[in-house]
Task: structure prediction
Amino acid sequence: MIKAQRGTKDILPENILTWQKIEKTARELFQGANYKEIRTPIFEATELFCRGVGDSTDIVNKEMYTFSVGGQNKDENSITLRPENTAGVVRAFIEHGFSRASMPVKFWYFGPMFRYERPQKGRQRQFHQIGVEMFGVESPSADAEVIALASKFLSKMGIKDLVAEINSLGCTKCRDEYKTKIKEVLKPYLNELCEDCKVRYEKNPLRMLDCKNEDCAKIFENDEIKKVILSDFICEECREHYDSVKKYLDILGIKYNENKMLVRGLDYYNRTVFEIKSDALGSQSAVAGGGRYDGLVEMLGGEKTPAVGFALGVERLYELVAHAEEEKLDYFVVSNLQDKALETVQYLRDKGKSCDFDFQNRKFSKQLEKAGKTARYALIIGEDEVNGGYYTVKNLETGEQTKLQKEEL
Ligand code: HAM
Result:
C-alpha cells in the first residue's frame, strides 16, 4: 500500500469548500486592492534561493528539495522546489521587465511550497501560502498597507483579535553596527551556544535571536546581552520610517506589539518585519509573516527597487477558521429511465442548475433517500410523467409536490 509522503496531506472534498472560501476571499480582497495574481513555476534554479533567501538560513541549509537533473555539468542544472515565493516573484519581476512599469507593481499569489522540515502540527513538507508582494515604493505607507491587508484578510476569514508583532531591522549600515555589538557581547558565551548558533555567529548573528534552543534562549536573557538586544540601534532615517509605519497602523486601527527579538528566518529583510501569531496553533504559531526587502531585486540582478510583502500559511489558517458547509444541489433526478434522466440532467445543467442522478437504476425509495441527502428538489420522471409530458418536482424540505412543464423547471 503506497501512502502519501510524510509531511504531505491530501485535501479531500470534505475540506475543499473551506479552501475555496479562503482562495475566494483572498482573490476578492487583493484584487480589490489592485494586486494582480501571478503564478510562477514550482521549481526554480537552486541558485535563486541560495542568493535570494540566503545561504545562512535554515531554509537553504537544511530544508530545500534540490535535484540535479540531466546534462553533463550537474551543478548547472540544479533545481529546487520553491521553499517560498518571494524569490520566484522577484525573478519574474526582473525577467519580464516590470521595473519599467509604472510603480507600484503589486502581485498576489496562492500555491504550494516545499520545505524538508520535521513534520508536526502546523508544519508540513508541502504546504500552501497566500502572499502579496509590492514593488517600487519606499514609503512606510506601503508597509502599512501590506500589514493591514494581512490583518484584514484574517478578519474577513472570521479570525478576530490577532495582534501583529512588528520590528525594524534597520538598514545595512545601522544593522552592521548592531551585529558587531551583539557579537562582542556574546563572544564570552560562544562555546555554550548551540551548533547552529555557532555558525550563525559568524554568518548571520541576528538569526541567533530567533534560536529555539533553550540553552541559547537562557544566554539571551542575561542582562548585559539583553541590554544590547533591546537597544535602539536603528539610524535616524530608519527610525523615522519605522515611526511612520506605526503611525499609519494606528490610523488604520491595526493592533500591533513591538518585538525586538523578531528577526525572521529569511535573509532578505531590512527595516520593517512582522508576524501575525495565534496561540491556538501551539508551537508553530505564526499564521503570516513578512516585511520589507529593499535590496533583493538588485541582488538578483535587477534595478534597485524597494519592495515589501507577506505570506500566510493556508494550512495554519485552515486550523483557525470556521469550516464551510457543503451546499446542496438544486435537483436530484429520480428515474429508472436512464435516457430521460441523462437528457434532463444535461438540460438543467445548461440552464445553470446544479444537478445529478443515480446512474444505477436503483429502487425509487433508494434514489429518493439519496436525493434527500444531496439536493433541495427531487425531479421525478416515471412512466406517468413521460406519458403525461410533465415532471413531478418534490421539495425535499417541505415534502410538497408539484407537476411542472420542462420550461417551468
Ligand atoms: P515565512 O515566514 O517563511 O515567510 O512563511 C510564511 C508563512 O508560511 C508562515 O507564517 C507559516 O504560516 C507558513 N509556513 C511556513 N513554513 C511552513 C510549513 N513547513 N508548514 C506549514 N506552514 C508553513 C516567507 O515565506 C516569506 N516569503 C514571506 C514574505 C513575502 N516576505 C515578504 N514577502
Q: What stands out?
A: The longest strand covers residues 105-114. The chain has a mean pLDDT of 94. Residues 84-86, 115, 117, 122-124, 127, 129, 131, 133, 265-266, 286-291, 309-313, 315-316 surround histidyl-adenosine monophosphate (CB under 6 Å).
